[in-house]
Amino acid sequence: MRPSGRELNEMRPVSIETGFTKHAEGSCLIKVGDTHVLCTATIEDRVPPFIKGTGLGWVTAEYGMLPRATNTRMRREASSGKQGGRTVEIQRLIGRALRAGVDRVALGERQITVDCDVLQADGGTRCASITGGWVALRLAVNKLMKAGDVQIDPLVDPVSAVSCGIYAGQPVLDLDYPEDSEAGVDGNFIMTGSGKLIEVQMSAEGSVFSRDQMDQLMDLAVKGTVELAEMQKAASK
Q1: Which reaction does it catalyse (predicted)?
Q2: At 235, is the pLDDT very low, low, confident or very high (cuts 50, 70, 90)?
């Protein structure tokens, strides 16, 4: 039995509230169970120097957690003068994931920055950030297309992410914190709406796993990301 009482292949309740902030070109508050992430997308008419003049667009991301997103207060990274290694790794992951679903030629020579701020954490913050980040990106691109600044839709496929793992010897979908903290195997699966893989992060946290178990986790991930893609499409119409 899972601590939450969910079935092995059952996601936590997911909601996506769009237009959550006033100024960003695209924004949403995504809730995956008790993990809540504010995602905003900002359009800028500039690109990093290494692609300037190529006609290619760029999508990047930043990630952070509020001090009381967890059960004990964390020090703001700004107060220490630098970001932690975990933060840098996650925001690079979010940027890579979102770019995989973007036609950068169609986007044109502009940059969209997706900011993901964790208001409350209960496991799966990077997955929720990617899923909500795509919705914010979709809304921002919708504005570009409505204004006529982009002629061809640069978002070729939704991008979403979900965690899967081995908990109490069983493969489970969408780990919350009690499961994540005790899972023998933990993985994050990032996929497109058409079921193609973008990135898989898998690690043994206390026990090794077999190829068969890996396949079971993959099947769960496909189920979860298909459900998330439908929610993304509905939220960003």
Answers
A1: tRNA(n+1) + phosphate = tRNA(n) + a ribonucleoside 5'-diphosphate
A2: very high
